[in-house]
Write a structure and sequence with these properties.
The chain has 173 residues and is of the alpha/beta class. The protein is built from 7 helices and 6 strands, in the order αβαβαβαβαβαβα.
């Protein structure tokens, strides 16, 4: 996916490897992350609902700050997977079930980016993730863990989004 990944290959394969980057279509409509006219802001996560995507931590972090912010926020999760029921239960247990929207699998996720204010990708590991690229195609900042491969490559910390430490995942997010 990138020249950096090529360095992890055995020496005999490095010269034979070709970088084929992920491609992202242009957005038809940019998001307006600073627009508060709707009264509610949206934190978007587009991911499979599987352990390595770490969505449970994102829900916990959202619950930890949701009551402390002046604006009204919702967490919108676009994706499907084996953890759907347990993630819904986790949001309900934390008292934010009404603030977390599970949108399921979507063939056209761009419509969700267009209305979002911020994107989060809390994954443990990625290759070269499409989500930050899709967020940037829509003019959205993205937040992710600094030790997740792909995040430091795609997100310029403090410019196009934020890198966060994994030490205390919920507090960091």
């Amino acid at each position: 996916l990138t020249d950096e990944f090529r360095q992890d290959l055995p020496p005999h394969l490095k010269p034979r490897a070709t970088v084929i980057a992920n491609t992202v279509p242009n957005a038809d409509r940019l998001a307006q992350p600073g627009d508060t006219s709707s009264g509610t802001k949206t934190l978007l996560c587009v991911a499979r609902l599987v352990p390595r995507k770490n969505i449970r931590t994102l829900i916990s972090a959202f619950a930890a700050v949701e009551a402390d912010v002046d604006e009204s926020w919702v967490l919108q999760i676009v994706g499907y997977g084996s953890l759907l029921d347990s993630l819904r239960a986790h949001a309900d247990t934390l008292g934010i079930g009404d603030k977390v929207r599970f949108e399921g699998r979507q063939e056209q996720p761009y419509r969700f980016y267009e209305k979002a204010h911020l994107v989060a990708l809390p994954s443990f590991a990625e290759g070269l993730p499409l989500v930050p690229m899709e967020a940037m195609a829509h003019g959205l900042p993205c937040i992710g863990f600094s030790d997740c491969s792909g995040i430091p490559i795609l997100i310029e910390d403090g410019v196009t989004g934020l890198h966060v430490d994994r030490d205390d995942q919920v507090e960091s997010l």
